[in-house]
Amino acid sequence: MRTLFLLRHASAEADTGSDRERPLAPDGRVEAGLVAGHLAAAEPRPRCVLTSDARRARETAAAVSAALGLGPAAEHADLYLASPGDILGCVQDLPDSAPAALVVAHNPGVAALARALPAKGSADAGSRLSSFPPAALAVVEFPDGDWADVAPGRGRLLAVVRPADLL
Fold first, then answer.
1. Which of 35, 90, 148, 159 could form a disulfide with 139 if both were Cys (CB 3.0 to 4.6 A apart)?
2. Which pLDDT does position 120 carry in this prediction?
3. How far is 157 from 3, CA to CA, in rounded Å?
């Protein structure tokens, strides 16, 4: 069994000159902390964290990694503004020794992948994933196979959590 946590980075500051270097906004730091606390209490808990190399994603991932007692997140330049297919490629390369993993990335790719992974008709997945604001989290379970077997339509949506749900 594999559990994939897909997290959109928390709210970032407006334009700072370089999109890749935009830090989290004060509200984003609060959002990241809320999601980190939620994940620290989750079962299963992510055992590894992948993140885009954009500053706002790295800062979100750092908050979660610290709450989970994990080392630094593995940064992947391929996750910066990635398509759903590029994100999926990173997921399929995860080590099979980690039964649960978290990917911190950007919209629209992360939300589109979260919508594509559950099996058709999977517990109103479409409506539950219609809004995917900053720091939104989708949890998708894959009952069979390795990470390399993760593909659209093969998962089961377990949860969608937004920061407002955690207040």
1. 159
2. 76
3. 10
